[in-house]
Amino acid sequence: MQADQRKGEPYGADTQIQEVINDPVFGDYGRMIFPVDSGYYSGDTLGNLRLAWYSNINPDMTVEIANYMKSHAEAGETIFYDIYTDEEIAADPAKGNTGLFFFKGSPGEKFAVCNAGGGFAYVGAMHDSFPHALELSKKGYNAFALIYRPGARTACEDLARAISFIFEHAQELEVDTECYSLWGGSAGARMAAWLGSYGPAGFGGDDLPQPGTVIMQYTGHSDYSENDPPTYVCVGESDGIANWRTMEARVNALNRLGIDTEFHSYPGLGHGFGLGHGTAAEGWFDEAVAFWEKQMEETISR
């Protein structure tokens, strides 16, 4: 047993990334726990994983996520769902690199879909969506982390398909589909915002309600509609990729339309801070959950 592993846990900071990918318990989807295109990450162990364009990667969280996945898979739980059929994947093999990792909360509770960034070149899930989904599940919410195809349009099509899949299988998944939320960082935030503005049908999905809340981190997205859902935004003021003033301007535009928003910017903080533990953004996640819960309450009162 490695010195840095907790007693009884299979993985530690010194565990090889390839060991996790190739663990038989994960079957074919083990390769999607980390970026499918290995050119976008570096490091060979869970403890020294680095992802392109991301900061503040927490090795303890990486280890916790890997152990969570293994323990739940070994218990016979389904932690990964394909969103496309075998026939669709045969026709377009790129769709074989998509799917939903499921971090189950309380049966019958509402759901969220978390979308990692990666410049629409890769999916940085281990830092930018798995942690969010895991923490949401700890609060009782049913959280999914989407692995999508690179490219803005295809990514949005995959998110639309994922939402359609969840609605179609809501009973099996034991989720409440009312006032669902979409979360995203960087490119993933653009996806969440676009689906918030135009709904799943706007990107080839089923004719379904728009999300009840959109949670966005660090993106220069400026597009919006008068029908956008309530939106929570956070970004670092030293972000060299996503200008915080651009995000603030979009929030102000939504406010002028009477859409509920919340905006936070953090001095000295750069791009890709994820959950923000130990940074100026500490606590943003709980604020975002509270914002979503506020929308749930207002949905009930209407």
Architecture blueprint of SSEs:
Layout: H1 17-21, E1 41-42, E2 50-51, H2 59-74, E3 80-81, H3 86-91, E4 99-103, E5 109-115, H4 125-128, H5 130-138, E6 142-147, H6 152-168, H7 170-173, E7 175-185, H8 187-198, E8 213-217, E9 231-236, H9 244-256, E10 261-266, H10 284-301
Parallel strand pairs: 5-6, 5-7, 7-8, 8-9, 9-10
Antiparallel strand pairs: 1-2, 3-4, 4-6
Helix pairs in contact: 6-8
Quick structural summary:
With 302 residues, the chain is an alpha/beta fold. Helices cover 34% and strands 17% of the residues. It has one domain (78-301): 3-Layer(aba) Sandwich (Rossmann fold).
Bin the strand percentage: 15-25%
**CATH fold label:** Rossmann fold
- In round numbers, the mean pLDDT is 95
SSE topology string: HEEHEHEEHHEHHEHEEHEH
Question: Poorly predicted ranges (pLDDT <50, ≥5 residues)?
Answer: none
State the strand order across the main sheet: 3-4-6-5-7-8-9-10
Number of helices: 10
Architecture, CATH level 2? 3-Layer(aba) Sandwich
CATH class: Alpha Beta
Task: Note the main attributes of this structure.
alpha/beta; eight-stranded mixed β-sheet; globular; two-stranded antiparallel sheet; Rossmann fold; single chain; 302 residues; 10 helices
